Structures are given as C-alpha cells and as structure tokens.
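The following block was generated as part of the benchmark described in Methods. Ligand: zinc ion.
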Amino acid sequence: MADTEDHPEVRLVTHCRRCHGWLVSAASVAEGIGPTCAMRERAEQRAAARAELTLFDIAA
Ligand SMILES: [Zn+2]
C-alpha cells in the first residue's frame, strides 16, 4: 500500500505546551497541555482577569 504518505503522522504522545513534559493521556494530547498545567493556566487567566478588573476600577 502506497497511501501511507497521505496520512499525516499520528502522534499518540506530544509535549505539553507549557512545561514541555510528555503528555501521554489522550485528553492531554488533544488539549496540548497536561492537567496540572491546564489548571495553572486557568488560575493565571483568572488572576489576569481580576487584575484587569482592578485596573478598570482604578481607571473608573
Ligand atoms: Zn505541562
């Protein structure tokens, strides 16, 4: 069969985009980030949103 060239390489493991550690669970691979890093990222986004609100309060 010559159609292997038509298939993109299917990666079952990849690196976390945040800590570059190996991701091995399908869900983490799909998200491109590990569960711990996803949790930290969400916490940071919340903190950033809070900071923006605070700045808005000061400006207003
Ligand atoms: Zn990570």
